[in-house]
Design brief:
With 260 residues, the protein is of the alpha/beta class. It contains eleven helices and ten strands. The chain is globular, with a radius of gyration of 17 Å.
């Protein structure tokens, strides 16, 4: 079976592709391990001047696969470390020196939305749904989303999205500033490639230095935020409300939360 995530490079542009469309490119152990390898390959590739991250099918990434679990690592690790480990592969993009373009071919939800946010630029699909619906399934957020989203849309708008779990379409994602632009899904990869080529045409050291200046201190802060979130996410995962929320989602019914 082909890898769940592929890395390839052509004409000074690297591309990471999540390739489990039958499972909505969700965060299974197989996909996360393959993503870590692809991210390492991109970081080691001195020939690229820009990186595109995209998916196949109608989802960029649907986030967690509740059937596969929401934590990773040895059972002897503290729960919050196992929660953080779920996001470690996606957070590795913070170490990529060249600009990263998220080509959001479809829906990006939960941890998949977090993956989109760690990219520097985003091209959204008009048909896609974007957001972090953690609270709707009884979970505290993860993937540094509480740190990243307010930087893009402001505290009030981020708070509304995170408190309600509301998803937005591509057009609203563009209006809010989550996406640089939104186009029909069939045009997302070509639009992202055109943007990558425009970046790659510039002096590579100057571009990397510009990204470093923008992000100075940012990667460390994002990881610290993800670790702090993991404490609350692990605590929420142990509650009845989380079990109810995930069961309701899988059964396609409205959850009944009790606060326990």
């Amino acid at each position: 079976m082909p890898d769940a995530v592929r890395y390839e490079a052509h004409d000074r542009i690297g591309v990471i592709t999540l390739d489990r469309p039958d499972n909505r490119n969700s965060m299974t152990p197989e996909l996360l391990d393959a993503f870590a390898r692809a991210s390492a390959a991109a970081r080691a590739d001195g020939s690229i001047r820009a990186l595109i991250v995209t998916g196949t099918g109608n989802c960029f990434s649907a986030g967690a696969d509740f059937k596969a679990g929401l934590q990773r690592g040895d059972d002897e690790l503290p729960p919050h470390e196992r929660s953080y480990a779920m996001y470690e592969a996606f957070l590795s993009l913070l170490d990529v020196e060249v600009p990263i373009i998220g080509a959001l071919n479809g829906h990006a939800v939960g941890g998949g939305f977090g993956l989109a946010l760690v990219c520097d630029l985003r091209i959204a699909a008009l048909e896609g749904k974007y957001g972090a619906n953690f609270v709707a399934v009884g979970l505290a957020p993860g993937m540094a989303i509480t740190h990243l989203l307010p930087r893009l849309v402001g505290v009030a708008r981020a708070s509304e999205m995170l408190f309600t779990g509301r998803l937005v379409d591509g057009a609203e994602a563009e209006r809010l500033g989550i996406a640089n632009r939104a186009v029909p899904s069939a045009q997302v990869i070509s639009e992202a490639t055109a943007l990558a080529r425009a970046i790659a045409a510039n002096a590579p050291f100057a571009v990397r230095a510009t990204k470093a200046a923008i992000r100075r201190g940012f990667a460390m802060e994002a990881r610290a935020a993800a670790r702090a979130e993991a404490v609350d996410q692990a605590a929420s995962l142990a509650m009845d409300d989380a079990r109810e929320g995930m069961s309701a989602l899988l059964a396609k019914r409205k959850p009944e939360f009790t606060g326990r």
